[in-house]
Every structure is written in C-alpha cells, then in structure tokens.
Amino acid sequence: MKFKLLLALLLLAMFIPSAMPATTYQINFKEGNNFFCIPLENTGYNKVNDIRADLPSVTWIYIWDATKQNWDIVNANVTPSLGMLAQVPSNYTLTVSGDVPEEVTTMLYGGWNLVGYAGKESVMASELYETIPDCEKISLAVAPQVASINELMPSRVSLLAYPNDDFVIEFGNVIWIYRNESAEPYVWKYTNKEEVKVDATDLVLPSLIALLVVVVVYAKVKYK
C-alpha cells in the first residue's frame, strides 16, 4: 500500500506546473574595447561593479551620460537597456542567466544615447527610428581599438547608421540613438511578445484527478 501511495504522489507531481527555466546569454569580449549590455533581468548583476568583479583584470567599464554627452565611470544600476563600454586585456566569455524582460523602458535625451537592445525579436533600424520622437540617427555601436576614451566618441565609433544605411538590430546589440539636441527627454518603451506556453489552467483537471487518487489510496491505507 505504501508503494501505491508513493506512486500516486509521483503522479501528482507530474501534473504540477514547474517554473520556466532561466535564459542563458553569452557575451564574448575581445581583447581591447567592447560595447555590451546585459539584456536580461534577475541576473544578479545589480550594479556595474558586480560585472567588474566577474571580468578578469578588466581595465575599466564606462557608461555614457546622455545628460552630459560624455563618458563616465560610475557604479550605475544595471538594466537590460544600459549600454556599457569595457576594456579587457584578453578574450573572455561572460555567461549570464536571467529572464527576458517583458517590458523595456529607457530614458532618451536630446543628443546621443547609448542603449542596449533587449527585444527578443530582431528589428530593422528603420523600424525603431519610427518609434522614437525627434530621432535623427540610429547607429550600431562598434568600438575601434584606440587607446584614449576621448577617441571613442559617438561620431567615431559607428560603422552603420540609419537613415543612410538600414541594418538589423538583434538581441544584445548596443546602439547609438541620436535625437535632436533640443528634444525633450522621452521615455521609450517596448514589449517582448509572449512565448506560446501551456496555460496552467489546462492542468487543473489532471491535477485534481491525481489528487483524488492520492486521497483514495491514502484512505485505503489508513483505514484498512
């Protein structure tokens, strides 16, 4: 009888919805300068210094202060849309686990903005361009191997730029967004499409049946 009770409990466990596994994302740093972002939530990287601790011998990590239109080294909060610039002495792969954000929000100012893209679906630069008021240019952030941070200004680190050239923006890419310098700050939001998942309500009936089996077996064992 104890075996039947155990079997019923296992049957019940099979129908209880389990937590969705975390998403794993790899950032491949090359020796020298690298633009990167952490396009996931709940990664354990809450501050820039948390990332520094996991990058062996990292020289520095800069963020772009759009309000001052210049680079800065601060221990900023890490969000999926925070674009960063790191200099590392050798190739290194950082593996990050977390959740794809349901909604991404970032503040865009007049002038240059360095933004990490956390959309699950790839998008053309021209499509993003149409969603941002006062946007004049979107370019892919690619860091040349120069010694001085002053040589890494937005106008010098872009290979592709819309509207001159359209290009694909993928999950984890870092982009420069240039808005008219007189533009008011704008909260830019986009959402990720939900994955097709089995609704937990679809498992209610099987779970109730399994629970009923457990109750019946337990009653027979106890009152026999």
List the helices and strands and how they pair.
Blueprint: H1 2-15, E1 23-29, E2 32-36, H2 48-54, E3 60-65, E4 70-72, E5 84-88, E6 92-98, E7 103-108, E8 111-116, E9 123-124, H3 125-131, E10 135-141, E11 158-162, E12 168-169, E13 174-179, E14 186-191, H4 204-223
Antiparallel strand pairs: 1-6, 2-5, 3-4, 3-5, 7-14, 8-13, 9-12, 10-11, 10-13
Helix content: 10-25%
- What count of helical segments does DSSP give? 4
Q: What is the subunit arrangement here?
A: single chain
* Uncertain ranges: 2-20, 195-204, 213-218
Q: Using DSSP, what is the number of strands? A: 14
Estimate the global geometry from the Cα principal axes.
globular
Q: Give the tally of structural domains.
A: 2
CA-to-CA gap between the ends?
Answer: 10 Å
Strand/helix succession: HEEHEEEEEEEHEEEEEH
Task: Give the strand order, joined by hyphens, for the main sheet.
Answer: 2-5-3-4
Main sheet? 4 strands, antiparallel
Mean pLDDT: 82
Radius of gyration computed on alpha carbons: 24 Å
Portion in beta strands: 25-35%
Structural class: alpha+beta
